[in-house]
Structures are given as structure tokens and as C-alpha cells.
Amino acid sequence: MTETRKLSSLKHLAKRYARANRITQHQALDLVAGKLGFANWIKLVSACKNEWMPDSDQMASIEAFVAHALPAADFRTGHPEILTRRFAYLEQAEHGTIGDHAYRLQVIFHDVVVAGDGWSIKVPENLGAAPIVETSTENDGRCPVFDPEFLQEALSLARERAIQVRGEISTNWPRRSTKPDLDGVVRHPLWGSDSDVWFCLHCNGKITGAQIAQSLWHCPACGASPLDIFDTAFWCEEGGESLRPMKTNGAVDRAEADFCVVDDKPRLDLNEEKIILLIRSALLEDATNISEKLGALRAEINVDDENDVCIALEEDLWPQDKEPIKALIVAAQLGLEVEFESMWSTIPFAWPGLGEGTASTSEYTQMMLDAYAQHGASPDTET
């Protein structure tokens, strides 16, 4: 790498660090210079003019320093396609151990989750939200998150990754979204509008540009996401003029975690969708030929408020004298009353009786095509 390119790379890395950490460019340049042993960036540039240049180890140390607030993959690839990098990053999970306890660390929609056997810790994207510790067991001494040392180490892992995630977010957003101008005006990272005053749709909060930039566009009061932050309170008749300004200076990471015990045992919620799925599956078991299979697929199955079932079967596809035994058995297992009806509607293919002679879909398809051809027509295929 030439001397000019090395200096340019240092400036580029400083710029990325400034955006990721929401500081000014000159602050980032001075930080980079400090890491290389200079009092400030001006001193570093002066040294460069006198033929000093960072060696490969020093360049690597600056890359590692800047990478602290950015995904490591960003420096390995150097690709500008932010969305591609983000989704690839979300799909990756890290695995390791804390003491004798294995964990996996993963980013899920910008929330960082560290989880192990019977426990999980989530550090939300929102800087002002407390970490959430969930365990499926009571405090019986076995779950490691009840050990203060283990908890702090796991929290440190999650918070370290949260710094990277928030740095990635800041880097992807416009610079003006995280750095107010002299008048306190900031730009919404999603809507693109500029203002020095913002409003929260959830809590009617009135927020300054500096406050909302510091909290990464989450409401400092209720934690609402950037999707609920607007430059006008359009839901208020007076446009939010009477709303009181927030007193908070911005959101910061909460030190204490919130504990909750969750019951992770599987529960059977027999809602309408699941009942219909089971009944239709049973109807398909009752079907012995293609006509009946089509009838099972096209059957209208309705579940009332008391979870009783009405099944309407197409009379051209399902024999009126055939009782769907499997469907009745499933309904009895679920404690449901069943009522059957016949219906008539436009069937998908001509000659429904063709399907009564075969249980093979491919054989039925060929029979149908041949029948259409014999009558001088061919089926239209939509593309």
C-alpha cells in the first residue's frame, strides 16, 4: 500500500468510526491519531510530511479499533451493499462457552440475544431499554444466569455486539440523522424530513433533535421505534403545540437487567385455522381417488364460536353417500360436533368423473388433457 493510500485509508476509517459512534469527523481523526501515538490528527499529518507512515501492524490495529463499532465482516469484504451485509450478518450465530455453559449469540432484527440451555439474555436495539433475562426454571441454583459473575459476562458479550449493531445502523443512516446541526436540526433516517422538534405517536412525547439523535430514534420516554417518530403531531388537532417537551437528555444503556420466568412448555391452541387444517387433512385421508381429493381440497370448512364444524362438500367431486370416516374420527378426538352439507360451484376441470377411476394425479392429468384434445380444445396455461 502506497503512503498516499495509507493516509487516505486512515481518513476513511476515521470517517466510518465517526458515523458509527455518532461523533464529529475531527474527533474521530484525533482518536485515530491518538491510537498511533500522536497528540492529534494535525501532528500525524505533519509526521507524514516528514516521511513517517504507519506500518502494516499499525494499520491493522486501527482497523481493529474501528471494527469495534462495526461488524467484522464489513472490513473483510469491503462491500458497500449494506442490506446484503446486514442480512448475512443476521443469519450468523456465534457459539462459545462461559465456564462450563455453552451459549449461542445472534442478532435478530437488531436485538442481540445470548442464549443457552434454559436461559436467554436480550439486549434490545433501543439504547434506553433494559436487558431482558428469561429463564424457564425457577431459581433452583441450576440456571447459570442467577450467578452474578456469569450474568455479567453474558451481558458483556451481548452489549459488545449491541455496540457493533448500533454502529452499523448509524453508518447506514444519513450523517444528519445522528449528528444535529448547530440549530439542533436532524434528519429522520426513514422519512428524510428535517426538524429540530419531533413527536412520538405512542406517548405524545415532544422530543428535541439532539434527544432523538442520541437515542438512535427511539422515543426516550416509551421506547417507540423510528417508525413512530414524526416531525409533526398530525394526530393532534393543534399539531402538538400543547404537548410538553421531554426532560430527559437522551437514552442510555440500562445497567440492571429485567428478569422473567417463562413457561416454555408447548401448548395446544386449537384455533379455527388449526382445526380446519386437521379436518382437511383427514378428508384427504378419506379420499380414495382424484375426484375425492379435489373435493377435499375444495371443501368449505367453517368453525363456529363453540368450535363446532360445518363441512360443505362439492357434490360433483364427493359422493353424497360416502361418509368421511377419518374426518369424523378427528372431530371426535377434538371434541367437535360435525355437520355435513352438499354444495355446487364451478369445478376446476370439465368431466369430474374422470378422476373417479384413478388415485394418481399424473394419470388423471393425462386423462384430462386427452379429453380436452378429443374435443378440439386445449387447456389455457397462465404464465
Explain what this protein looks like in three dimensions:
The structure is a single chain. By secondary structure, the chain is an alpha+beta fold. The protein folds into four domains: 3-69, no CATH class; 83-172, no CATH class; 176-250, no CATH class; 272-374. Helix content is 39%, strand content 16%. The protein has helices at residues 3-21, 25-35, 41-49, 56-67, 72-77, 82-90, 148-172, 175-178, 209-214, 272-286, 290-298, 325-333, 361-374; strands spanning 93-98, 101-108, 111-116, 119-123, 132-135, 186-187, 194-195, 197-200, 206-208, 229-230, 258-261, 300-303, 309-314, 338-343. The strands form four sheets. The protein has a six-stranded mixed β-sheet with strand order 1-2-3-4-5-11, covered by helices on one side. The protein has a three-stranded antiparallel β-sheet with strand order 9-8-10. α1 packs across α2 (25-35). The longest helix is centred in the middle third of the chain and has 25 residues, at 148-172. The radius of gyration is 32 Å and the shape is elongated. The two termini are 54 Å apart.
Supply database-style keywords.
single chain; 3-stranded antiparallel sheet; 6-stranded mixed sheet; alpha+beta; 16% strand; 383 residues
Principal-axes geometry comes out as elongated
Radius of gyration over alpha carbons? 32 Å
- Tell me the strand percentage band: 15-25%
Whole-number count of domains? 4
- Secondary structure: helix percent: 25-40%
* pLDDT averaged over residues: 83
Question: Which structural class matches the secondary elements?
Answer: alpha+beta
The H/E string reads HHHHHHEEEEEHHEEEEHEEHHEEHEH
Provide the spatial order of strands within the biggest beta sheet.
1-2-3-4-5-11
**Number of DSSP helical runs:** 13
Distance between the termini: 54 Å
Outline the biggest β-sheet.
6 strands, mixed
Count of extended strands? 14
